[in-house]
Design goal:
With 472 residues, the protein is α/β, with parallel strands linked by helices. The protein has helices at 8-16, 19-39, 43-62, 64-78, 88-101, 113-117, 120-126, 136-143, 160-170, 180-197, 223-229, 250-262, 297-301, 317-320, 323-328, 339-350, 352-355, 367-371, 378-390, 409-422, 425-437, 448-452, 463-470, and strands at residues 80-85, 106-109, 130-133, 200-203, 207-209, 214-219, 233-239, 243-244, 269-273, 287-293. The protein folds into 3 domains: 1-39 and 316-407, no CATH class; 49-299, NagB/RpiA/CoA transferase-like (Rossmann fold, 3-Layer(aba) Sandwich), CATH 3.40.50.10420; 409-471, no CATH class. Strand 5 (207-209) and strand 6 form a beta hairpin. The termini are far apart.
Length: 472
């Protein structure tokens, strides 16, 4: 199942009409919100963590070009081979070249949203290379030929019965059960054998440390560690914005990430990879490659306001607290990154032609901005993108790909007329006078408005009656 952002409205309608999907998301989002709330029980501590995380991300982004060069130099000195990819096509070509050079036909993957962004699995399949997801959630959605519906918990849209049905269809010898532990163990038994067979391991990167040339990987299942130590070749891929300046920058960001994402003080595994296996080491890959992907991120970087989008550390808290995402789920957006963060980053990755409807899919309630651990002003950026989708770029600001994709001559005429009327008091008074005299021509029912909303009922007793009774 591969939805498209151009079809957001019918996809959202389909999601709203699916009671099981809505129940799955409702329960999951309530659980995750409660976990985050418990992790930030002290409001003062929460603000301090967010202040620190925001300051680190902004400092690192302000030095991004220099830090990327420093990262490349230190990774190279450590024995990591660094590759640059301007877009998804170049990134996939690099993967194919590296894997073919080692005669590989099977790659095991740890969780990586950037690999989803470039459609790595699909593209490698064209090259005769199978990429097997080893994260349990990713494994489930791969079995179902779906895409992740959440950036932290890819299969959060499925309940245990749906997972059991999927295993019964695709896993030989599986005995149907709703026991969660058995379901998890079934997936692990399948994947354990694949780790032994694969010569290529693929992972994402949570933080890339310029100071030391270290790749940091956050996980809970251990599959990331298996992918980066058992195969002979490890290929890591990350967006260029994930670089941080110092190793000391990582702990504050790690704390903000885990608490915001899953309500944990710390994850089960935290991997730090600084190079391939040394001669006196017993495990680890013989080669480590790092692919640094742009894919539209430079477009956001050069715009000081939109640069704040790149502060994201992929915790998913904005999704968990978004009333729109909670009701329609992730697949309705038709993008790799759904929810509030997806609405502001996808236009840079895919252009406004494809994503023009996404910035309007928000109530602007502000919940996403209130919980973001790095304080991305998501509501303000959504309003900015709504402007970009309909009007010419602001002076001195580079245009987005697909600028004015949602422009409407009719809407522009209406707003110009409204501006003309409201800027001339005499004309405004005349039109409002006419409107009050002609209100009898209004229809008795207002169509969709009255079908979805209940008009306020007249009070049983008037205010005058209540005041008179009070004054007796």
């Amino acid at each position: 199942m591969h939805n498209k952002p151009q079809l957001f409205h019918p996809q959202a309608e389909a999601a709203l009409a699916n009671p099981e999907l809505r129940a799955n998301f409702r329960g999951a989002m309530d659980y995750l919100r409660d976990k985050r709330k418990a992790a930030f029980a002290d409001a003062d501590e929460e603000q301090a963590i967010r202040d620190r995380a925001e300051a680190i991300r902004q400092r690192c982004l302000s030095k991004l070009p220099e830090l990327l060069e420093q990262l490349e130099a230190n990774c190279t000195a450590n024995g990591i081979r660094v590759h640059w990819a301007e877009n998804a096509e170049q990134a996939n070509a690099l993967f194919a070249d590296i894997i073919r050079a080692h005669g590989g036909t099977l790659a095991v993957k740890g969780k990586s949203m950037v690999s989803e962004e470039i459609e790595l699995n699909h593209q490698m399949e064209k090259e005769g290379i199978r990429c097997l997801e080893s994260d349990m959630g990713e494994y489930i959605v791969q079995l179902g030929n779906e895409t992740p519906s959440h950036i932290i918990m890819p299969a959060i849209h499925k309940n245990k019965r749906q997972v059991a049905d999927l295993f019964a269809e695709h896993v030989p010898g599986f005995q149907h059960t709703l026991d969660v532990d058995t379901l998890i163990q079934t997936g692990r038994n399948v994947l354990r054998e694949k780790f032994r067979e694969a010569h290529i391991g693929v992972s994402g990167v949570n933080f890339a440390v310029a100071e030391t040339g270290t790749l940091c990987l956050v996980e809970n299942e251990g599959n990331g560690r298996m992918c980066t130590t058992v195969p002979e070749v490890h290929i890591a891929i990350t967006g260029i914005e994930k670089v941080v300046e110092f190793l000391a920058d990582v702990p504050p960001l790690f704390s903000a990430l885990t608490r915001s994402a899953t309500g944990q003080a710390i994850t089960t595994y935290f991997n730090m990879i600084s190079g391939p296996r040394k001669d006196d080491e017993l495990d680890g890959p013989r080669e480590v490659h790092l692919v640094l992907l742009d894919n539209g991120r430079s477009q956001a970087f050069v715009d000081e306001e939109m640069r704040k989008t790149l502060q994201c550390i992929r915790c998913g808290a904005c999704m968990n607290h978004c009333p729109v995402y909670t009701r329609i789920g992730g697949h309705a957006y038709g993008t790799v990154y759904p929810g509030p963060i997806g609405k502001i980053i996808s236009p840079h990755l895919m252009g406004l032609e494809a994503t023009k409807d996404l910035p309007t899919a928000s109530s602007l309630c502000g919940a996403c901005g209130e919980v973001c651990p790095v304080r991305i002003p998501i509501p303000e950026l959504l309003q900015r993108l709504r402007h970009e989708a309909k009007q010419d770029p602001r002076p001195g600001v580079p245009p987005l790909r697909g600028q004015k994709a949602a422009a409407s001559r009719t809407e522009a005429l209406i707003w110009r007329s409204f501006g003309l009327v409201t800027s001339r008091p005499a004309l405004y008074r005349m039109l409002t006078w006419c409107a009050t005299r002609l209100r009898g021509l209004m229809p008795k029912k207002l169509g969709p408005w009255t079908r979805c909303r209940t008009a306020p009922q007249p009070a049983a007793r008037t205010l005058r009656e209540l005041m008179a009774e009070r004054n007796k």
